[in-house]
Amino acid sequence: MRISNNDREELLFSKSTFAILDEPALIASLRESAAFKEGIQANSYVWIRDTDKTVLGNLRLEKGKMVFECNSKNRLELAKTTVLADLPRGSVRHLRDEFTPLAPLMKQAQKTKDSRKSPDRDSEIPEEIQHKLVTEYLERHYASWPDTPLPALGGKTPRQAARTEKGRHDLNALLRDFENSEERKRGDGQPFYDVNRIRRELCLD
To answer: Residues 79, 18: one domain?
Structure first.
């Protein structure tokens, strides 16, 4: 089993944590950055690729720490050598990197599901582990979706598109496709995202 992101890189939840040494300089740099866009949540930022508007990673500031997260080791390494390396010298100090592979957990979860009819269940890993990891990733990913420029909306963000009648029409069509995809996941028992949350946020109910 190999699960990939849209760059065909193996899906690997990757996190890099930094201690914040100069918060004013760090925030000023992030706000002026061409690579990062401010997210919906306070002190959160989204790393977006210019060429196709793909969200490459999410960054947040919390309790004296800067946490960068993405879905592949390649993206993490790219971030550390480019956008994170461009932060003001002395504003942060790297603490650690953490990696959580999804595919082995999903494979083990499937084995667990298949083995539930067996009396020997000592080595089972609950399927909830896989669901929790995927759900957490979906939450982080789609938190920034309303403010991400999309080619399907003429380069506008969903929030911008929701301000006009044509934009709302195009946005509803996009969300219907999204809902169909997520509904199939739900029907298959896979983790899914509730698209109605986006509709409520953008006042499309």
So the answer is: yes
